[in-house]
């Protein structure tokens, strides 16, 4: 009876978690869309726009390790709820400034920095809590539904933002975001973060481990997990090399191929649709048996697609065919993002000790984002002095070589010892 009640509560968590993520992601992305347009239309300054992006990335990178410590040592539910309340208050503060003094760049940059911090607290802590919210057989479903909610937000928020921008005032945008955030607070406050948690309870009166000692313990734990170390190194190098895609894609389509803005928007929409459909597939299929192997193949496919972005620069295609080509490439890219991320996230949820999840996921977030700004700056410089197609082909080749080396067959077998000796007698390829 008790088990049936826990499973029922876990089902409630699945949908509450998904709806909460959808509402907060949708609100955040519509806000980001409106603020970006406002900055560019008001100032016409790329520097101001880039400063807002830095205010989003830098606080996340700096705060993530400390968030991991808090997630492992304090109530995860309290952290998530307080972070969401802080989001609501930050937007409320910007609304007050807008109505009282008028919207200013300084107010936008401060708000963006605060929202970056609150989303880091909420994101790392929520990710650390998945295995406590739902039963183990449905972890893949939970991760897939999370990806689905973000894909829905990616598809819908530009359309909603574009529809509303110019029709309603900035204060209306902010009020809508505040309402979305309040709903997310209400939903998150009804969840039981300890339902399936396996965290060790501290004895009454026992002092908590100092922060730096706790973070050192997290790194020491990570060193004992060679497969996790490989995953983190792959994430670090992939995010750096993906600067070629992040910077080059818009540059090639808008500057080189002279694609119309609405067609460019459609290709970006194809990316979100690819993510959404693959997330739906993962939410209904059986759990992936060999996650690292599946993710490796997904990364190899992404490398191939990244190299293919430069193909129309070498082979002249009619405009319609070029548009269709990029839509298909971006659809495949979106689908492969889910193929790479979902199995690895499920694997990490199951393998990492519950008491270390906050620190490990925060280290992964820090490492993943650490080289992104450097990659974007370097590739921005490269695209000014070198042919775009060769930058993409070189980066794609490096990506494929790195993955083949780091996720070599011996590492795959270490992660999945059962590979090569299935009951059917037919061995699965580890390449």
TrEMBL record:
It holds the Pfam family MFS_1. GO terms for molecular function: transmembrane transporter activity. Keywords: Cell membrane, Membrane, Transmembrane, Transmembrane helix, Transport. One of its GO terms (cellular component) is plasma membrane. The chain crosses the membrane at residues 12-40, 46-67, 174-197, 218-244, 264-284, 296-317, 323-348, 360-382, 388-407. CDD domains: MFS_MefA_like. It is a multi-pass membrane protein. It is found in: Cell membrane. It comes from the Bacteria. PANTHER family: MACROLIDE-EFFLUX PROTEIN, PERMEASE, MAJOR FACILITATOR SUPERFAMILY-RELATED. This is MFS transporter. It comes from Lederbergia citrea.
């Amino acid at each position: 009876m008790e088990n049936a009640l826990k499973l029922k509560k876990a089902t409630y968590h699945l949908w509450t978690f998904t709806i909460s993520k959808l509402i907060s992601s949708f609100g955040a992305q519509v806000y980001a869309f409106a603020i970006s347009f406002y900055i560019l239309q008001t100032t016409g300054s790329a520097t101001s726009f880039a400063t807002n992006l830095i205010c989003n990335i830098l606080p996340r990178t700096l705060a993530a390790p400390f968030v991991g410590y808090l997630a492992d040592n304090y109530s995860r539910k309290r952290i998530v709820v307080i972070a969401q309340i802080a989001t609501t208050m930050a937007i409320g503060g910007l609304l007050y400034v807008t109505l009282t003094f008028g919207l200013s760049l300084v107010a936008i940059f401060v708000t963006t920095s605060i929202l970056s911090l609150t989303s880091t607290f909420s994101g790392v802590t929520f990710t650390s809590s998945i295995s406590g919210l739902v039963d183990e057989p449905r972890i893949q479903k939970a991760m897939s539904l999370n990806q689905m909610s973000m894909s829905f937000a990616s598809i819908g928020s530009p359309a909603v933002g574009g529809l509303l921008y110019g029709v309603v005032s900035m204060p209306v945008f902010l009020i809508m975001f505040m309402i979305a955030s309040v709903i997310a607070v209400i939903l998150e406050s009804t969840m039981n973060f300890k339902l399936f948690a396996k965290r060790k309870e501290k004895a009454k009166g026992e002092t908590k481990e100092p922060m730096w000692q706790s973070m050192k313990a997290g790194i020491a734990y990570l060193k004992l997990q060679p497969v996790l170390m490989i995953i983190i190194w792959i994430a670090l190098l992939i995010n750096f090399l993906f600067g070629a895609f992040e910077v080059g894609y818009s540059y090639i389509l808008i500057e080189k191929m002279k694609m119309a803005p609405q067609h460019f928007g459609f290709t970006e929409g194809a990316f979100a649709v690819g993510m959404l459909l693959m997330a739906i597939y993962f939410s209904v299929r059986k759990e992936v048996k060999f996650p690292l192997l599946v993710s490796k193949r997904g990364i190899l496919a992404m490398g191939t697609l990244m190299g293919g972005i430069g193909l129309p620069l070498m082979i002249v295609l009619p405009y319609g065919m070029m548009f269709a080509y990029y839509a298909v490439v971006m659809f495949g890219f979106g689908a492969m993002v889910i193929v790479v991320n979902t199995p690895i996230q499920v694997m990490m949820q199951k393998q990492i000790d519950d008491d270390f999840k906050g620190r490990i996921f925060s280290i992964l977030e820090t490492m993943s984002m650490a080289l992104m700004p450097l990659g974007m700056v370097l590739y921005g410089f490269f695209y000014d002095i070198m042919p775009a197609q060769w930058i993409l082909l070189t980066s794609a080749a490096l990506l494929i070589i790195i993955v083949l080396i780091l996720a070599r067959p011996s590492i795959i077998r270490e992660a999945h010892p059962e590979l090569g000796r299935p009951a059917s007698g037919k061995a699965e390829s580890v390449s």
